[in-house]
Design goal:
Blueprint: H1 3-28, H2 46-57, H3 60-74, H4 82-92, H5 96-104, H6 109-123
């Protein structure tokens, strides 16, 4: 699967998750946006499970490139050293499941992915055509 396709699908699911929480949390918490640590947010949206499953089915290289897009959009990385940043991501996580859990914790995942793709497009970079690394994922 192409990185651009994977990012587009992830954005759609992440937007659905964000929209769900934006609608549900105010209903469940009278003092919203203040939510107490013991407050029950209610059940997660079905898209959360779909996003987790979708990301888990991606080839590892594509998954880490999707994460690279998110981190680029979040401002953690710049386009001048994508190969080193990609390798750092692979080194920082014990594998795909740990990375997926980290991505799903990001309330702004859709925004990060959208911004990351905007940056790549502006710079004329296509992650489907760039060989970033061949190393295996996992902490040293």
């Amino acid at each position: 699967m192409k990185v651009t396709t994977a990012v587009s699908k992830a954005i759609a699911l992440a937007e659905a998750i964000r929209d769900y929480w934006e609608a549900e949390l105010p209903k469940r918490h009278p003092n919203y946006p203040l939510v107490g640590p013991d407050d029950d947010p209610g059940p997660p949206p079905p898209e959360e499970k779909k996003l987790r499953q979708f990301l888990a089915r991606l080839p590892e290289e594509v998954l880490f490139k999707v994460a690279l897009v998110a981190y680029l959009g979040r401002g953690d990385y710049e386009t001048n050293n994508l190969a080193a940043d990609y390798q750092a991501l692979r080194d920082d996580f014990d594998g795909p499941s740990e990375l997926i859990s980290q991505l799903l914790e990001k309330a702004s995942l859709a925004d990060y992915l959208t911004e990351g793709m905007t940056i790549l497009k502006k710079e004329g970079l296509d992650l489907d055509k760039i060989e970033l690394a061949t190393a295996k994922a996992g902490k040293g």
